[in-house]
Amino acid sequence: MRRPGPHDLGSGSRPGSTAGAHDRRSSAEPATSPSDRAQERISRAAAELALAEQNRRFDAALSNMPHGLCMFDGDTRLILCNAAYGRLYALPEHLTRPGTPLQEILDHRIANGTAPVDWEAYRDIVAESEQRGGDLINRHIQLQDGRTIQITHNPIPEGGYVASHEDVTEILAAAADRHLARHDALTGLPNRTLLRERLGRALVRSRKSNPLAVLCVDLDHFKEVNDTLGHPVGDQLLRAVTGRLSACVRERDTVARLGGDEFVVLLPGVQGRKQAQDLARRLIETVGAPFEIQGHRITIGASIGLAMAPDDGDEVDALLVNADLALYRAKAQGRAIACFFEPGMDARAEARRKLEQDLREAVTNERFELHYQPEVDTATGAIVGFEALLRWNRPDQGMVSAADFIALAEETGLIALLDEWVIGRACADAARWPQAVRVAVNLSPAQFRNRTLIDTVACALAASGLAPERLELEVSESVLRSDGERALATLHRLRDLGVRIAMDDFGAGYSSLGCLRQFAFDKIKIDPSFVAGLSEPGPCAAIIKAVTALGASLGVVTTAEGVETAEQLARLREQGCDAAQGYLLGRAAPASEVLALFAERRADS
């Protein structure tokens, strides 16, 4: 007879049977069959394998991460870190083990030069993260070895934190290079490259009803600042100008620096010529206000050329060229003004460029002459001196007066070389004249502010052998008005050399009397406008009389310029003027004719 198996026991078994007991256990907890237990073991093994695979993948990811990763507990002990973290700070193996105190890692970094330069900034990362309730914190930290590390810090709710460390030194350097390629290093403004990009995009959007304007801005007298106060002051001045220009424009406008003292302002969507002109005037007023730079009160100006798109061009190069042509016109008309581009300006600009080219060639090859106009004693008629007047024998043009090219020489920086040549040549010529006769040289404001002026004068005197008191340097009151203290110091140093100092064009400005109070001039040269007025009713005679009386009381010689008639000369004698100069008394002549004049007088005597 067959023994019953477990499957033969049904639910109808008697209460005391084994099957009944099993049924009672099942009501409390499920029975686990061998197959269920086997399945459970299989599931558990699969889960362990999956976890092992996940851990393997995590370890692989952690080990191959390009950035350093670390985790510290609430007691700032290392929980884990990857290989990149150890390499980043050159940590030995024992400092990468779990349980290592953070302080030991930091001590090692201090020793090997990978510690932060600014420890406070490093500590602030943790402090800020705690204050912000676990938000992610990103900071750039500079290391002692010159690298820059970006740290991303994330606190763990139960204490401690996870942080990633990335070396961004090369990334930042590349970004800086890209920025520098399109921005001016000194001012941070867009450079020519970025300006052209923005102008090109603006032209695509530009329409007849939505024009744009290009303003070329050039600083007046900036080179004089560099020459007299030095390039560090000039650089600081350029940064200050940048701030003023930027404050005048809208956020969507562009202020760019092309180099030197030249800026460009791009105005997209400008509402016609009037808006562009109003901005140009505002820029001129803003730049024209005095600057305080390193204890110096500096006054410069700005000239502006404007071109409008599409009327004045619908291409980048055309607009920039036409705005630059308008700038040439502005500077030629006296500076500190704004001019719009007009057809035909290119021909005038070409003439100006040719003039500049010829002038540079003339300076290099000394294609200049000095002509000398006599100064005569009004009482005796004797020649007491000559004023040196610069002339340029320009090819195919003949003799050109200094009035036609001095402004260009100042603008291009050639004036310093010119004045140096004039002083040297005048001293050499005067050394061959009778000892009682002086030579006068007019100094341009640009040359007067040149730091080499004292050495130039001293060298010219030494080379020629001319007695210092026979050299007379003429300056205008604008010299004292532009930089009084520095100008006075230069005048005193020139006086220490023994040369004479004359105030030129006395009465033509607004502060002539103030200048006499500031410095004891040897001579006052009365402006020709007062001499011309002697032939007409008016106050000119009284003014000249007052000036000559003032000169006599101060022990200062007075000389009247522009004497063209015998009547004027007679009136000047009556008013007590010491000397006179003008066409009546002698026109300017080359040095050879001056020597011939002295030879004739010696023969007559």
Short key terms for the protein model shown above:
disordered N terminus; elongated; 8-stranded mixed beta barrel; Beta-Lactamase; 605 residues; Alpha-Beta Plaits; 22 strands; 5-stranded antiparallel sheet; single chain; 23 helices; alpha/beta; TIM Barrel
Q: Can you walk through the features of this model?
A:
The relative contact order is 0.05. The N and C termini lie far apart (178 Å). Helix 22 links the parallel strand 20 (557-561) and strand 21 (579-581). The protein is α/β, with parallel strands linked by helices and 605 residues long. The protein has 23 helices and 22 strands. The protein has three domains: 63-172, Beta-Lactamase; 183-343, Alpha-Beta Plaits, CATH 3.30.70.270; 355-597, TIM Barrel. An eight-stranded mixed beta barrel has the order 13-14-16-17-18-19-20-21, surrounded by four helices. The model is unreliable at 1-28 (pLDDT under 50). Helix content is 48%, strand content 21%.
